[in-house]
Every structure is written in structure tokens, then in C-alpha cells.
């Protein structure tokens, strides 16, 4: 029974193309960014402008690709039950530096409207913990985001 399960899992993991893996990773990252955007239940104009800019620069996407990714991520994020399903994908494929950049982007989105909502703060802190980042890394990324706002 266990051998059959291992065979199934290995054949399933091989069926995923590198392009599909990259797309799943991007969707996970965008879904986490959307968690921050919708944490305070309002989408400010600053957040709406910043999200595609972050995606085009960080993921080397065109504006149209970024908007398509956001639309797809909204559907996935709306049906999600926890942050774990997104952070698990990121933990599987990303380095510490990439995780730090994601947390930095989350902080930038949280501060984009000029004020940090307690729910935004909570989501970023939980995400950071699920990504196995140190508290000092979380604070360092927050400070960088604050400095970039000035």
C-alpha cells in the first residue's frame, strides 16, 4: 500500500512542468500579498497602484500578466482556508532572501495607505512565522518598508 502511494506521489510530482511550478509559486506569493491588501477590508488607491508595480518588478512580468495573475490569485485566495497552503509552496521553492523580499513587499503594501491596520500586521507576522523567518528579519523588512515610504 505504501509503495503504491509513493509511486503515485512521485509520478504526480514529475507531471508538473517547471513553468507550472513557477506559476504556482507566483500565485502563492500574490495570494499572500492579497491577504494584506484585503486585511483592512478596503483597497486603497495606493495599494491598487503598488501591487502591480511590485509584481512587474519582482517577477519580471508585463502589466497585463501581473493583472491576470492578480485576478487568478483573487479566486484562489477567496477559496483558501489558511495561509499554510500558500506558505508551504513558498517554503518548498524559495530561499531565505526570496522569503524576505516577499515579507518586505507585504510590509510595503501594508504601509502604502499611510497606516498599518492591526490585521495587516497580524497577517504579515503569521506569514513570517510560517516561512520560518526570524523575528529580527521580520523587523528588518518592516524598517526597510517604512524607510522606503519616506
TrEMBL record:
Recorded coiled-coil stretches: none
Gene3D superfamilies in the cross-refs: TerB-like (1.10.3680.10)
InterPro entries named among the record's database cross-references: DjlA_N, TerB-like
The organism's place on the tree of life at top rank: Bacteria
Membrane spanning residue stretches: none
Residue span(s) of domain Co-chaperone DjlA N-terminal: 27-143
The protein's name in its UniProt record: Co-chaperone DjlA N-terminal domain-containing protein
Organism of this sequence: Shewanella sediminis (strain HAW-EB3)
